[in-house]
Amino acid sequence: MRKYIAVFFMLAAYIGASAQEKMKNKGTPPPSNKTGSTTPAKSSDELSFWKNIRMGGNFSAAFGTYTYIQLTPIVGYVFNGKLFTGVSGTYIYQSEKQSNGAKISYNIYGMSAIGRYSVYEGLFLNAEYETLNYSLYDVKSNTERRVWVNSPLIGAGYISSFDNFRGPYIMVLYNLNYDPNTTPYPSSWVIRIGMLF
What we know:
- By secondary structure, this protein is of the alpha+beta class.
- The protein has two helices and eight strands.
- It has one domain: Porin.
């Protein structure tokens, strides 16, 4: 009887060790596509695509006699770590208190197509085409009407983290279509500070 018990324990130990060895060497099975219930793993191309998406934008505000609030969200894609292309939306609120106590306010909105090219360690060139809709006062007819104004802007900037256009940035742009009578900008030079994630 002891002989059979010893053989039983030896056989049980062998099967247990054998099962553990199989489990140890067993790899993760590939996702099943038969039932459609298992989601396949993301390919490296999909991961690479999302890794190159950038989101962020600009925000600025000033309060007092003259109030100015600007919100510009940006979304774009980085190609080869050198070229960033994207689009942005713009909303600007302006109000000014007049000497007679009256308050004049404006709502400006629009969008831009953006292109940036990395030149050297954080320095980049920027070109964009912006279109804004705002209220324009016509002195001759003494009326106000909403118009679309198109502005090609070129310039350069610096991003503090030059890891493929991710981090805080500052840039100086020149409005090639500047006209003080038909643009909401106070100058042909535009300074922008923002962040991309």
